[in-house]
Amino acid sequence: MKRIFTALGLALCAAGFLPAHAATTQATPAVAQAVAPSQFTLANGMQLIVQPDRRAPTAVHMVWVRVGSMDEVDGVSGVAHVIEHMMFKGSEKLAPGEFSRRVAALGGQENAFTSRDYTGYYQQIPANKLEDVMRLESDRFAHNQWPDKEFRHELEVVKEERRMRTEDQPRALLSEQLYAAAFIASPYHRPVIGWMSDLDAMTPDDVRAFYRKWYVPANAVVVVAGDVDPQQVLALAQKTYGAIPARAVPTRKPRAEPPQMGMRRIDVKAPADQAYVALAYRAPSLRSLTEPTANDRDALALLLLSGVLSGYDGARLERGLTQGPDRVADSANSGASVFGRGPSQFYLSGVPATGKTAAQVEAALRAEVARVAKEGVSEAELTRVKTQWIASRVYDRDSLQNQASELGSNWVQGLPLDAEDRLLTLLRGVQPSEVQSVAQRYFGDDQLTVATLLPQPVAPGTRKRPAGDAGGAIR
Known about the structure:
This protein has helices at residues 10-13, 79-86, 98-105, 130-143, 148-167, 170-182, 196-201, 204-214, 230-239, 294-310, 316-322, 358-375, 379-396, 400-412, 419-428, 432-441, and strands at residues 38-41, 47-52, 58-65, 109-114, 119-126, 220-226, 264-271, 276-283, 329-337, 344-352, 448-456. By secondary structure, it is an alpha+beta fold. The protein folds into two domains: 10-243, Cytochrome Bc1 Complex, Chain A, domain 1, CATH 3.30.830; 264-456, 2-Layer Sandwich (Cytochrome Bc1 Complex, Chain A, domain 1), CATH 3.30.830.10. α2 (79-86) packs across α8, α10 packs across α16 and α11 (316-322) packs across α12. The longest helix is centred in the first third of the chain and has 20 residues, at 148-167. The radius of gyration is 23 Å and the shape is globular. Residues 456-475 are annotated as: Disordered. Residues 1-22 form the signal peptide. This is Insulinase family protein.
């Protein structure tokens, strides 16, 4: 499955989110500004964002739909991801598989992705082929259709994907169980890939109904980055996407997660070579970058705390848990998942070293956060993390794919187009005392869910599958 990591979405949720080679202790420089993106609204409500970048005669074209697994209901989990697969299976004008063949004939590459918050489709093509892919993509957005036999075949592909990426991957299986235990009312309780029983029971009409409900122009944005002129792209968008009839976006009911009333623990038994432990703490979400509230500032401080703990080679978790003769872990990581349409969490995880237990790793992880709560962090340590973020931002801007992904992710979350620059400005202002404060306030037992992998014997001759991840975007 194809992964999409955006500068302001999944990348910030991943442990070790910043490139180690970017580390430095110098003062944080300003980020060089690219040509500002342009944003338009078509008559039917669909949004268009254009980011010119003239360095090469190529373009990335994306459609982001503000619908993901969090918009599903019980009994049809996984349907948002199944729709993503079925979008390649035909339209009123194209036979199953014809979309991909035509993109390839244009000299392009294409794929798609589904997460809890969104579904996205993209093509990278020569810039002079942009009109062709806009015509193709707008057609399947508005007129996706396929015979039932195509659905039955593709559903088996999705089921095998679930087996390969979750059920045969102990840590991905644990991650799925952790989400299910940590969230009760929030739809984040369900996996993006869906529960297997729901996939078994899914019908073609389940998929068609979800598609008709959510694939409406006002619930989507077209993002184009590359060697393009914004006004010319607008004209193409009006001719293609603008011809799709307007429809109302369904009303979303709030499904707020209730306060956690105490620590939760789960054990997951699965064939594995090593134990593993993951801790998830309730955390505030980052909702506004223009008028940040106290919760927003806490979320920013938690992002930097994650960087202090595991954001670079030799960070605190690596030094404290994985190095030296008395090391307790083979690996240890943290992640601040504070972006998204749903509730947020702060994660700690680790793999016990030989002769050590998951309980010892859990205690060591918690001790590192407690040390920050008691002693704080140094200005130099925080400056190093901030500087890495700047370097990562410069690196991201070198990629058309990253530029387009960032803009689409920002739109899905209701953030401004310049969200990354605003984020960096706010992060520069976070003080060591704020990082110490969040370490003191957000890591109590009542806010914690712990999942421990209890390794079971691996059957002789079992073929290892490629590693999976239950928490990220999938294709």
